[in-house]
Design brief:
Largest sheet: 7 strands, mixed
Structural class: alpha/beta
Number of strands: 18
Shape: elongated
Radius of gyration: 22 Å
Strand order of the largest sheet: 5-2-1-6-7-9-10
Helix content: 25-40%
Number of helices: 9
Length: about 290
């Protein structure tokens, strides 16, 4: 059986379905309103499961009696969890062999946003961990890990795609080999808190290199933004750190043919791709030509 919700979980589900460990049931979250029209839409894992011909249930809670009955009817030898986004409680927690795929090298970056936090922190590598699910936050014994480098140009989108592929392969291998699992060292634990609006804001008082990492970490799914002197909040989907100090932090410097540069406390941040409020994404240079008219 498979518990998953997000786009990241979809690639893992596809890999499982193509293996000898094909799930007999997918449990995911209920449909939720999306987009400007706020129409109900199924989670990515639900759509993928239907395309793959795997039965799907979408309970309000995986711990509800109806959900527990649906799971018990399948008699799963193992329950695989990946980017599910719901709390798993007893008796489900102890009823089955339950493995979670987490996109970090545990105990580093436990929590909701491990890929984003690894890029933001400037980590040179990350990876995937297969662990036994426990009542704690990503704190169960680790059964397998695989390392993946973080490339200088990586965004959330490129890195998460590789980690999903690597993780799917590792999960299949772990289900087959059933390796021993080792307790995590609590002294080494760090936490990847959920991304909030403060994380998305690019503060020109900071180091341009750090701000570039924020942009990469939040692209394309969440998005960063910078506040300009006239009060405009400009979305930034691609940026490049420049070494030279250009003046007062927050000042917008524009050169013909180039993307605009926000002066920072250290260096400058070139806005390569931007998304003005209510408009489509465009090059920074294109936006600047209209902005300065």
């Amino acid at each position: 059986m498979f518990l998953g919700t997000s786009e990241f979980a979809v690639e893992v589900l596809r890999r499982l379905t193509a293996s000898e460990h094909a799930p007999q049931l997918v449990v995911t979250r209920p449909d939720r309103p999306r987009g400007r029209g706020r129409r109900l839409a199924a989670p990515p894992a639900a759509e993928a499961a239907r395309d793959l011909g795997v039965p799907v249930v979408q309970p309000a809670s995986v711990n509800d009696d109806a959900a527990l009955e649906a799971i018990a009817a399948v008699h799963p030898e193992a329950v695989c969890v990946c980017a599910f986004g719901g709390l798993i409680k007893e008796p489900l927690l102890s009823a089955y062999r339950m493995l979670n795929l987490h996109p970090s090298l545990l105990p580093r970056w436990r929590g909701a946003a491990p890929i984003e936090r690894a890029i933001m922190a400037g980590d040179e590598f990350t990876g995937v961990s297969i662990m036994k699910v426990s009542a704690g936050l990503d704190s169960g014994p680790v059964c397998a890990q695989r390392t993946e480098p973080i490339r200088p140009e990586d965004t959330y989108g490129t890195l998460s795609a590789r980690l999903a592929q690597v993780g799917g392969e590792l999960l299949v291998q772990t289900l087959t080999a059933d390796p021993p699992c080792t307790d995590q060292d609590e002294r080494e634990a760090t936490y990847a808190d959920k991304i909030d609006s403060d994380d998305r804001r690019l503060d020109p008082a900071g180091d341009a290199r750090e701000l570039e990492r924020v942009v990469r970490a939040l692209s394309p799914h969440v998005g960063a933004f910078v506040g300009l002197p006239d009060g405009l909040q400009l979305g930034v989907s691609e940026a490049r750190a420049l070494p030279d100090d250009l003046g007062v932090p927050g000042q917008l410097v524009v050169a013909d043919g180039d993307g605009p540069v926000v002066s920072c406390g250290q260096g400058g941040l070139e806005l390569v791709r931007v998304k003005p409020p209510g408009r489509k994404e465009m090059s920074g240079a294109e936006w600047a030509r209209g902005y300065l008219r």
